[in-house]
Amino acid sequence: GQQLNQSPQSMFIQEGEDVSMNCTSSSIFNTWLWYKQDPGEGPVLLIALYKAGELTSNGRLTAQFGITRKDSFLNISASIPSDVGIYFCAGANRDDKIIFGKGTRLHILP
Amino acid sequence: EPEVTQTPSHQVTQMGQEVILRCVPISNHLYFYWYRQILGQKVEFLVSFYNNEISEKSEIFDDQFSVERPDGSNFTLKIRSTKLEDSAMYFCASSERVTLHFGNGTRLTVT
Questions:
Q1: Edge-to-edge strands of the sheet including B65-68?
Q2: Which residue, of A11, A88, B91, B96, has the fewest CB within 10 Å?
Q3: Are B4 and A48 inside 8 Å of each other by CB?
Q4: B interface mutation test: which of A46, A96, A104 has the most B CBs within 10 A?
């Protein structure tokens, strides 16, 4: 079945650093979604991408829908402590079936 | 901003017991979902529901699971006879189309 490969699995960075994570697949998706999950809470939508090549920002977050429709990346600029959490990519295919990546766990070092 | 609400936030049950997890999706959404997340792992799709019927289900969603929309606002997940491996966070989500909005989850602990 379809799978999303999300990397890196885990990141340890200093406050103020920029962060980059990505999702790739051998399958084509029509929509890419990026979510953040804080401990004990449900995933919260950060950015939704609906068109190949689309580049969208939400504050310090920027995400792009890859031109091949098989990948997407999420960048966080100037990280702050509240950015800590797990970031999930999700892709929706033409049947609107949504699958999730395994997540990138972001840690910020004191 | 409208949100998906789930109750209870935490449920502890004995193996073999039935549990019902409740969700109130966002009111104008048409698609409803249940996802499961075992501790430390990814969010796994269980089932989607549209137009009062299941539109898709995963291999996890076996005969022990059922969903219902008993009235115009609630969406429930029933596990008929819980197993230890059913212990997980269960998230309800709703959408107008593909952009899912999640509730805060119900932590199910089966002992």
A1: B5-7, B19-24, B75-79, B65-68
A2: B96
A3: no
A4: A96
